[in-house]
Amino acid sequence: MSDHPLIKAEQIGRISAVAGWLGVLVIAILSLVPGNLRPHTVLPGPLEHTLAYALTGAALAFGYRGMDFRLLCLVGLSAGTVVLEIPQAFVAGRSSSALDAVAGSSGAALGMLLAAVLSKLFVPTQRQ
User: Fold this and answer.
1) Which of 84, 93, 116, 128 has the fewest CB atoms within 10 Å, i.e. the most exposed one?
2) All residues at 6 or more sequence positions from 71 whose CB lies less than 8 Å from its CB, including other chains
3) Average per-residue pLDDT in the chain?
């Protein structure tokens, strides 16, 4: 019997990092398209922001296990929420909202924190 997990920590990291950066790209695109082109859910806008940023933050936290890079991602995602809210005031069918920026930043922090804890508990460390 092998003591190797089905998927190794290195593979989890690569897949998660790609998913995180794709999340950043999707958030950026969906933040800047006109309101009628953006997919809508039944959730309130701030909750959509929280979930989108939480999933993206979690993927980045699983992808990059170093605390320095995680903090850099958190600062970047939080700044991104503000930066992406500003041009929405000039996009048809969209509006800027400080609440959406706070929701996005909070979601990023929650997602990254949860993923950091889960990865510490459940993702095997790489063997040297």
Assistant:
1) 128
2) none
3) 88
- How would you classify residue 93: left for phi > 0, otherwise alpha for psi between -120 and 50, otherwise beta? left
Q: How many CB atoms lie within 10 A of CB 112?
A: 26
The number of C-alpha atoms within 13 Å of 98 and in the hemisphere containing its C-beta is 0
pLDDT in tens, 83-120: 999 999 999 988 899 999 999 999 999 999 999 898 88
* Cβ neighbours of residue 32 closer than 8 Å, sequence gap 6 or more: 84, 87, 88, 91
**13-48: buried (b, 16+ CB within 10 Å) or exposed (e) per residue?**
beebbebbeebbeebeeebeeeeeeeeeeeeeebeb
